[in-house]
């Protein structure tokens, strides 16, 4: 495909643009900025909430749209306005949390009001294990009680198991409710969304809104939550650090995130 047919580039963050220390390199920023300067729409497509993009990809300008929380929300990064959303029904979320109540699992939420976590994040030891995770918006005594009284939309439920056994059991069982899907999105974290929410669906919806055919989209990702997006895009790229099922969904495979593989591919594809 002629690279000049590409009008939108969708980019995953963790494991793709970001190094393992969760920082974005100068090379990657410069490469993505060059795309934006050329009039190509740059769209972060991430499991993160909008707050988790600040200090990374949002240093590039302009970025007019962000696909957040695994596709559960499409937002305007400048204003935070929600353009489209595919939330988890609150009663279903309460049922899910009650189902897992007695297991050694730490849950947090992505909502239209920002991230929400229960008390005990630091005491659990998880804050030390995952220092890049910030919860600046809300700490509440009990997530179920909070959900029962909120008017916010719930976009994602994140899970950090306290043990590998709990992690493997949750993955093996899958979602206990048909209205939700459960995905492994890292070496020790699980994310739960509405069964209708995905990066791929959000990308298709955004492109329809912008009148951009999927054949004019380039997407890069590394994880299970990127597979549908890669299959939909006209040009699909898996990172070298991706697992085999992700690589098999992509047309191209580039270097690892630690080696700035995304920047390497974009430089070669657009500018030779």
Automatic annotation (TrEMBL):
Alphabetical UniProt keywords: Hydrolase
Gene Ontology cellular-component terms listed: cytosol
- MF GO annotations: magnesium ion binding; phosphatase activity
Q: Which Pfam families match?
A: Hydrolase_3 (PF08282)
Protein's UniProt keywords contain Hydrolase: yes
Q: Which domain of life is it from?
A: Bacteria
Asked if the record carries the keyword DNA repair, the reply is: no
Q: Which PANTHER family match?
A: HAD SUPERFAMILY HYDROLASE-LIKE, TYPE 3, PHOSPHOSERINE PHOSPHATASE
- Under which name does UniProt file this protein? Cof-like hydrolase
């Amino acid at each position: 495909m002629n690279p000049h047919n590409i009008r939108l580039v969708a980019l995953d963050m963790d494991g793709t643009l970001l190094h393992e220390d969760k920082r974005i390199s100068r090379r990657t920023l410069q490469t993505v900025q060059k795309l934006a300067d050329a009039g190509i729409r740059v769209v972060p497509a991430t499991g993160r909430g909008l707050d988790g993009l600040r200090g990374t990809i949002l240093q590039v300008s302009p970025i007019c749209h962000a696909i957040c929380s695994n596709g559960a929300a499409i937002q305007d990064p400048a204003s935070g306005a929600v353009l489209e959303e595919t939330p988890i029904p609150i009663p279903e979320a309460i049922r899910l949390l009650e189902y897992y109540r007695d297991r050694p699992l730490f849950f947090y939420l992505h909502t239209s009001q920002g991230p929400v976590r229960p008390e005990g994040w630091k005491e659990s030891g998880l804050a030390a294990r995952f220092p890049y995770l910030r919860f600046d918006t809300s700490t509440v005594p009990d997530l179920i009680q909070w959900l029962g009284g909120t008017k916010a939309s719930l976009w994602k439920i994140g899970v950090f198991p306290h043990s590998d056994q709990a992690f493997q059991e949750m993955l093996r069982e899958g979602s206990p409710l048909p209205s939700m899907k459960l995905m492994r999105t890292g070496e020790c974290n699980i994310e739960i969304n509405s069964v209708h929410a995905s990066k791929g669906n959000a990308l298709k919806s955004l492109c329809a809104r912008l009148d951009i055919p999927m054949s004019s989209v380039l997407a890069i990702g590394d994880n299970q939550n990127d597979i549908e997006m890669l299959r939909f895009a006209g040009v699909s790229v898996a990172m070298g650090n991706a697992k085999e099922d992700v690589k098999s969904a992509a047309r191209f495979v580039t270097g690892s995130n630690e080696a700035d593989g995304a920047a390497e591919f974009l430089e070669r594809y657009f500018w030779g």
